Amino acid sequence: MTTGTDPTTTGTDPTTTGTDRPRSRLLPNTAPWRSSRDFRLTWTAGTVTLLGSVLTMTAIPLQIADLTGSPLAVGAVGAVELAPTIVFGLYGGVLADRADRRSVALATELALAALTALLLVNALLGSPALWPLYAAAGLAAALQGLQQPSAEAMVPRLVPHEQLVAAGSLLSLRWSIAGLAGPATAGALIATAGVPAAYLVDLATFLVSVLLLIRVRPVPSLRDAEAPRLREFTAGARYAARRPDLVGTYLADLAATACALPTALFPFLVTELDAVWALGLLYSASATGALLAAATGGWTERVHRHGRLVLCSAALVGAATAAAALAPGLWGVLLCLLVAGGAHQIGDTFRSTIWNQSVPDELRGRTAGLEMLIGSAGPALGDLRAGGLAAHQGVRAALRIGGLLCLGGTAVLAAALPALWRYDRRTTEQPPTPPQPSPDPGEDRAPRRIPPRTPHREPRPREPRRQQGAHLPRPPAPRPVTRIRRCRRRTR
């Protein structure tokens, strides 16, 4: 188990704290890579898995489109994935607070590899069946719901407390690399070698990830491993509801993804711009902006007002999306999308830092489940909103209204939740001390410490003060005369 006392994660070396780095201040701090072997292994395993998963996520819709030719059948994949993500995402948060987080990530990785092998077998058949594609999509969503809370909750246990900002930047960089390189690789591979090749490469990436995770030391729960109770599923939500700053981070992410995420409009936007050939550029513009922001995120370590950066980045996403609706040509739209992707990346970095630094470890898995649900619900709601507005008022109007809604929602959050605006990591973060086990598994607050009872001791009698001549023998005390004797003497 990697704790703060382990020499590989203490961060005592001044070169690993991020304070005196000879490199450029814009480059991301790689101190978590250098100081924590387990973080390095999990980061590499996650990057390899993400690159392979993008191949399967691209291959399944293409295979369904080839088998059915129906856009509705392709869109049904999202509906199949929604319910397992919600249900198993909540349970995965409780599981992350109860079981060994490394073991949960490893077991789900093996199960995902088995699903990919079944997809490969189905794709190699003479006439592939349709139902295994939907079944695999639903099961994969369930397994990812179990895995992601444990994978995210491991980070505060793998790196020192002062390196959590740098670790958040590196994790964001991993998502940016997968989002930019994954679709391009998937398109080229499927076009040249077919859908089975995509499943085969994804299976190989899962095997590499499993080999890396096996080398990570266990990350057991700090609480007693008991069966989860029903109230534990809502413990994370009840804890977050008592913290307005934490609620603000969730709502800021929801405002950016549900109001200013124009992914569903790209096929129609290139038609209006008379640049159908640039559809891939639109899809990769946001990922490119996110990659640039992550690659130049060294400045994030010197920022203490994380809440303000969360709100400002969400506002910048809305402003850039609204500006894209007013851009006259393709390159102006691409520039706006580039800025929006970079701003969203910065917001993700500071949101994850707030979560990792301020949430107690015994609740980190359940709050990670909430984060995953909001991260999944936001893009789905954004596609629904963008499609509905575009059908009634046009593509440009949908872009403009979405950006303005994001701006207005961010302003409302800043006014309604001042705790988020005042959030300062120097004063509001949790101390990096391991929590004590709670006697009630459903109780989300720290147990009351009762001092041990000391045994009762009789008071020691005080010795009389020695007077002058106390060393001489004392004369015998006169015999007391009782009342009866006095009465007899009087009678005589």
What this model shows, in words?
This protein is mainly alpha-helical and 492 residues long. 68% of the residues lie in helices and 0% in strands. The chain has helices at 31-35, 37-68, 71-96, 101-124, 131-153, 155-158, 164-193, 195-214, 235-241, 244-259, 266-272, 279-295, 306-326, 330-358, 361-393, 395-416, 418-421, 425-428, 483-491. The longest helix has 33 residues, at 361-393. The chain starts with 30 loop residues before the first helix and ends with a helix. Residues 1-23, 431-451 and 484-489 have low confidence and may be disordered.
Could you give a quick summary of the protein structure above?
The chain has 492 residues and is an all-alpha fold.
Essential attributes:
single chain, 492 residues, mainly alpha, 19 helices
SSE blueprint and pairings:
Blueprint lengths: L30 H5 L1 H32 L2 H26 L4 H24 L6 H23 L1 H4 L5 H30 L1 H20 L20 H7 L2 H16 L6 H7 L6 H17 L10 H21 L3 H29 L2 H33 L1 H22 L1 H4 L3 H4 L54 H9 L1
Order of helices and strands: HHHHHHHHHHHHHHHHHHH
Mean of the pLDDT scores?
78
Count every helix, treating DSSP H or I runs of 4 or more residues as helices: 19
Unreliable stretches covering 5 or more consecutive residues = 1-23, 431-451, 484-489
Strand content: under 5%
Q: Roughly how much helix do the residues carry, as a percent range?
A: 55-70%
Q: Total number of β-strand segments? A: 0
Q: What structural class results from the helix and strand content?
A: mainly alpha
